[in-house]
């Protein structure tokens, strides 16, 4: 199992709504991610910069950021697009982060 991390950019003033939507994450999205090997998924918020830091474990090769061809993911992106900096397809602008240290 590999670990993946990336950052995204939350729009100012959207913190509470972003958290509210994730508390009520769609069951079909959660199932789709789990069925495709994504687990132990966390998102952290840096209040000073409004940067979101996400980390997840992945069984296989595809992280959640590689699943944009899935209709559920596309609908989630559309739903979240008013809260995040997004690309033209409404996928969140995300930057992959390289792991330089890990301790079990």
TrEMBL record:
Enzymatic class: isomerase
Single annotated GO MF: L-rhamnose mutarotase activity
GO biological process: rhamnose catabolic process
Keyword set, alphabetical order: Carbohydrate metabolism, Cytoplasm, Isomerase, Rhamnose metabolism
Top-level division of the source organism's lineage: Bacteria
EC annotation from Swiss-Prot or TrEMBL: 5.1.3.32
InterPro entries associated with the record: Dimeric_a/b-barrel, L-rhamnose_mutarotase, Rham/fucose_mutarotase
One term under GO cellular component: cytoplasm
NCBIfam families named in the record: YiiL_rotase
UniProt-recorded name of the protein: L-rhamnose mutarotase
Organism (species): Parabacteroides acidifaciens
């Amino acid at each position: 199992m590999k670990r993946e991390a990336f950052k995204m950019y939350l729009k100012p003033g959207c913190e509470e709504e972003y958290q509210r939507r994730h508390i009520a994450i769609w069951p079909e999205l959660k199932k789709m991610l789990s069925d495709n090997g994504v687990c132990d998924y966390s998102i952290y918020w840096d209040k000073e910069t409004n940067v979101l830091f996400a980390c997840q474990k992945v069984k296989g090769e595809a992280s959640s950021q590689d699943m944009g061809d899935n209709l559920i993911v596309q609908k989630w992106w559309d739903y979240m697009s008013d809260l995040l900096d997004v690309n033209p397809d409404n996928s969140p602008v995300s930057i992959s982060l390289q792991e330089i240290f890990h301790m079990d």
